[in-house]
Amino acid sequence: MRQMKWKLTRRFLGSVVTIVVIVGIVNTILLLCLLFYRAMHNFGTEEVSAENFSRTFSQYVELQDNKPMVNEEGLEKLQDNKAWIQFLNNKGEQVAAFYTPQNLQTVYSPVEIVQMYKYKEIDAETTVFVGEAHNFSYFVGVKEQKIGRYVITYDYAKVFKYINILLLLFLIVDIIIALVIGFLFGKRLTTPLNTLIEGIQQLRERRFKKMPIPKGVYEDVFSNMNELSVKLDQYEKERDQLDQMREEWISNVSHDMKTPLASIHGYAELMKDSSTDLTPQELYEYTSIINRQSKYMKDLLDDLNLTMRLRNQQLPLQFEDVNIVGFIREMTIELLNDSSFGDRQVEFEANVDKAMHKVDKKLLKRAIFNFIYNALVHNDENVVVNIRIDNIYLQGGQEQKSSNISTASVFHTQITIADNGRGIPSKDLEQVFERYYRGTNTTSTHGTGLGMAIARDIILAHNGKIDLTSVENKGTTITILL
Prior knowledge:
Strands 8, 10, 11, 12, 13 and 14 form a 6-stranded mixed beta sheet that branches. The two termini are 56 Å apart. 50% of the residues lie in helices and 18% in strands. A hairpin with a 2-residue loop joins strand 5 and strand 6 (136-143). It has helices spanning 2-40, 50-55, 72-80, 110-118, 156-204, 219-273, 280-311, 324-337, 361-377, 451-461, and strands at residues 61-64, 67-70, 83-88, 94-98, 126-133, 136-143, 320-323, 345-350, 356-359, 384-395, 398-402, 412-419, 465-471, 475-481. The chain is built from 10 helices and 14 strands. Helix 1 runs antiparallel to helix 5 and helix 7 (280-311) packs parallel to helix 10 (451-461). It has 4 domains: 2-41 and 153-199; 50-143; 220-311, Orthogonal Bundle (Helix Hairpins), CATH 1.10.287.130; 320-481, Heat Shock Protein 90, CATH 3.30.565. The protein is rod-shaped and about 170 Å long. It is of the alpha+beta class. Residues 218-252 form a coiled coil. Its main location: membrane. Keywords: ATP-binding, Coiled coil, Kinase, Membrane, Nucleotide-binding, Phosphoprotein, Transferase, Transmembrane, Transmembrane helix, Two-component regulatory system. It comes from Peribacillus butanolivorans. It is found in: Membrane.
């Protein structure tokens, strides 16, 4: 973890330093090019550059009687630029002057001419420029504080040496600054990454802990990581619950198998040891028990096989067009013809004449019978079971019932099985469809304990929906939507 942390830090530091160095070098090159261009081309325009004005002033100079004279336009230019002009012959003597100050000398030696040009000999505000017109030299003095002249004397070798030293110093300073800034930036940038890596390590170790969400570019990443942690924690708990259910299921299966096996084994041993002493009535009773327990084991194994195949979608359904109304009506008649339930109160009500669906008749019959049998077996004998069929239309987000069927309309068939029996406690509602669930308010041990789970899986295999509501001591209602 620490090696990864420093690796990320070094990578960001290297990136930042490289960028800063490149930018510094490019900026230096651009600065040198700019200075070179300024030296080669005067940035001031002809209208505002005092030096250009002085050099080109000869265009306003004319000769009269072999003496230089400034025309009217030139005089206006001098006044506009707050300048004066002094003409000299080849001996350094003044031959003409315009707007010159009173203390200006009229004769110059060569040294004085150079001094006049290089330095501000008149006053601190006047800069003197030199020009030539009609074989006469002239001084142009511009009185402007913003204008100045600097004369530099330098040795090329020393200049390049100093420039190299300055560039090296500049590079060292830039690198130091880049390292400091890069370290701070890299530390700030890599700290969330290190926290993120630690979070991933926790997920790998199945420790699902939420991380604090930092502000900035990593905010979405940390939010997604926390959501992932919550999901994985939820899946882990569900898996533990499923593992526990599986263990309980296996334990229940083992227990349910052991009970009939023990009974079969005991009666078989009894018949074997006392075969000559048993009366025909006892022999018939023992063989009946063995047969009943064997049938129970067969039913249990068949139910286990069916529920597993339904859950894993490995059971091919034999679909055929069936009128659900007639189908359930026949089932109700069949139930009432059964001697065990002939005197029970089972009501059938159809609010629709015909409802065609593609179903597996055998499996759907088993599912609906399971729901009806549960209502009859787990309640008192005076319980009333009502079976009702409706058409449900979804219009405007509300369910509406109708007995007028239009074959062109899309509808759902709703099968409701309701009783007024004991009901199911609220704490047991979520477990009703679990394997081997038997409610706490029932004393019946009829069946294998897989009936409700199988019935629910059959409805889901038909792409249907099932809902169960129950109020204790008031009854239970099962709604199937096809």
